[in-house]
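Action item from last week, closing it out:
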Amino acid sequence: MMVGLIGNYKVFPNSLILTKSSSKSAKITKKATPSATKKEKITKISTLCKAFYHDLAIWAYVVKKDANSKDFTSLKRELDFEMITSDKVLRLRLRNADIKATTLENIETTSSGLTITGTKASDIYKPNQWREISIIASSVGDIDAGGLINFIFTKQVITIYIKGTRAVVFSYKPAYSYSESKVYQTSIFTAQNSKEVRTSLSKSYKKKVSFNVITKELNSGVEQILSFALQRYCLVPLWNSLSISKTSGTLNILRCDTTLKEFDKYLIVWRAFNDFEFAKILNLDDDKITIDKQISINSGDYIVPLLKTTPAKSINYDFLTSEVKSYKLEFLELK
């Protein structure tokens, strides 16, 4: 005899049906059903099996946390690592909702710096068996951690989309004294007559960005960003190349003026220091930018190119009040 589950009730596919009245004092009663032929019974059981086993497929459930840090699952096949400043782990569950076993033939990914644990190629998933999979994003890898993971089963492919950025964006808008300059790295030799002779170490220049920013210490992440950037790097907006969005929607083609702007590999759509979208640039035209994903944008939003930089080792700041600091910052491009 097969036992299935519908909600919290057991269903026995035979000649008895269990019913329950809405009354608190009601008792469970048995109702006899008309006899059926063997063929009809097999058909009913087969139909129940298909309903219980979700159309005989592999199902993926992404594990998330609610406001109280309790696990819940989502059928949206997307893992967003957001800003990856250290190794980060996200989870999902794969379930074989079939009446037959299936084999995981291979795992393919287009994202760099990912480790997948909890399953491997050649694993056999028995009927109604599920496994919890951990996806670990290392802090070492491409700036754009986006891509996908394909779990390739014998008769089905489960695709999980990956989002994330291996960098910190210094998203605070400069308060004053903002400047962008070009620097040629040189080696200095001092002659006996005390005159300096400079020899070029690089045929190309590097950009230098300098500005002051004022922020409340209690609500700011400036020091945390600078601490991470000194060990790795950070992405700094080039505010002199700011462009204004001309359209609204969820788009991957951003309409704006890019002439005489220094757009290169990455950009942000900026609304506030804690409200921005990061994207990789795929193609650049005078009146539009094509990016690697669809993002939410409004007419009038700032579209700003990003520069990969390292901050100066010496950072100066002043206390304007007991809570507010003024930072004098300098960033040099990393090639």
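Closing note: The first helix runs from residue 38 to 52.
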